[in-house]
Amino acid sequence: MSTIYESRYAISPTEFKTLDTAQLRDNFLIEKLFQEDTLILVYSHYDRYIAGGVQPGINPVTLATIPPLKADYFLERRELGIINVGGAGEVEIAGTIIPLDFKEALYIGQGNPSVVFRSVDPTKPAKFYLNSAPAHKHLPTRKVSKDEADIVILGSLETANHRIINKLLVATVIETCQLQMGMTELQPGSVWNTMPAHTHDRRMEVYYYFDLPQGQAVSHFMGPTQETRHIWVQNEQAVISPPWSIHSGAGTSNYTFIWGMAGENLDYSDMDGCAITELR
User: Fold this and answer.
1) CA 20 to 30 Å from 131, out of 40, 63, 258, 274?
2) Which domain holds residue 40?
3) Residues comprising the binding site?
4) pTM beyond cutoff 0.85
């Protein structure tokens, strides 16, 4: 196996205004998250958040530490959230094997030195989407299925934003240090996510888009509410969202996206709303 990682440094809204399209994508878009038998990680300096992906083939893939962590093992001072977006898989934690199927989530607490990923059938590989944040204490490992999620249904077909929000790794379902993850499924005929838009200056967020039909894309909107920009996102790509930025998108088809966030507040509803008519 191999490990590929990169660091993304934090920039301010003032710098953000100066970026051209290529620079915007270089700073915020994660174009490739999955490669066979490879651990891919992007270390963001917004809240020291890590987003990544693992696609085991015939061989298992180990969660390896990376130089920026200055740690003996990846979870020495971190917690980890996983959602499987591929075929059936298994996660082995210190000798205990946990099966993880499509759209199931797993939380692994700080202090676990050994995490190994496997695909049940290498011809239909698992794709483990990873989010990680710094952690201050050890918490129990727990698997969370969609049936165990805190589910909220929002929007309507008339406003093209009928969506099912599956809160998977959140305070109403499981205890974490600061990491929160969930999955929003846009219903047929709906394309808008997180609209009306909001910011939350107390935490950053990453959106991972998938379930997009071939040939379709999502236009992800970001930036301060009075000066927004957009990034065109393909299937199985992600966007880093700074605390000062909105995070919303409209697709050329319905799709699913995973949201992950970390910061100083675990209150899911803690957000600063923006009326649609106030966006610029």
Assistant:
1) 274
2) 2-21+30-141
3) 198, 200, 205, 247
4) yes
Angle (CA) 6 12 14, round 5°: 130
**127-186 per-position pLDDT tens digit:** 999 999 999 999 999 999 999 999 999 999 999 999 999 999 999 999 999 999 999 999
Both 52 and 167 in one domain: the answer is no
How many CB atoms neighbour CB 278 within 10 A? Answer: 11
Q: Establish how many alpha carbons lie within 13 A of residue 273's alpha carbon, considering only the half-sphere containing its beta carbon.
A: 6
Which two three-digit tokens encode residue 256?
């699913």
- Of 93, 114, 141, the last residue of a domain is 141
Q: What letter does residue 36 receive in the DSSP assignment?
A: B
Number of domains in the chain: 2
Answer for the pair 189, 160: CB distance below 8 angstroms, yes or no: yes
Q: Which of 77, 107, 141 is the last residue of a domain?
A: 141
* 209-237 pLDDT, tens digit each: 999 999 999 999 999 999 999 999 999 99
Same domain, 224 and 122: no
Residue in 79, 68, 30, 34 with CA at minimum distance from that of residue 53: 34
CATH assignment at residue 208: 2.60.120.10
